């Protein structure tokens, strides 16, 4: 199978996820600073989630450059990733509307942890299909960020029950870690 249909479908789902998140942002009923300030937690949760979805879209885009053919395992692994990404708007809304309290913050952490696991499984499905000498295998290397992220998410989930702001700081840290450009795949695809 060709990868273009999988890529187009994934792009569409991710666009819908972002649309759902932005539709959760409601204009204040009053025209004053206090009404706008009351929306700050909702806006901050949206910004963080938008960054995460953008990171996944960017990494998925690069990942698909390493794919030569798609099989059923890759299709299902990709759908698994999209499933978990589709839950981010729910976790985002719940966290923001409840001002980053304990349980919503922990659930938000789960909504971040599960796509990271699903993304790793998608990488493994591609590696299984394309082999240990594939472009992806060469590009991944030790994948320190990919291994560290789930550990930080899991720590954040646990720490949400101690102090939610510590968990939120870990979630922001992981996002910042992934905002630093990761050019491993680009270098391999472009032959640098």
Q: What percentage of the residues does DSSP assign to strands (E)? A: under 5%
Low-confidence stretches: none
Q: What is the number of strand segments?
A: 0
Q: Outline, from the CA principal axes?
A: globular
Kindly name the structural category. Answer: mainly alpha
What proportion of the residues is helical, as a percent range? Answer: over 70%
Q: Determine Rg (CA atoms, Å).
A: 18 Å
Question: What count of helical segments does DSSP give?
Answer: 10
* Terminal residue distance: 28 Å
Mean pLDDT: 93
User: Secondary-structure element order, as H and E?
Assistant: HHHHHHHHHH
Give a short account of the largest sheet. none
Task: Provide structural commentary.
- The chain is mainly alpha-helical and 192 residues long.
- Helix content is 78%, strand content 0%.
- The protein is built from 10 helices and no strands.
- The protein has helices spanning 4-23, 33-38, 40-64, 72-86, 88-97, 102-130, 135-140, 144-159, 164-179, 184-190.
- Helix 4 runs antiparallel to helix 6 (102-130) and helix 6 (102-130) packs parallel to helix 9.
- The longest helix has 29 residues, at 102-130.
- 32% of the residues are buried.
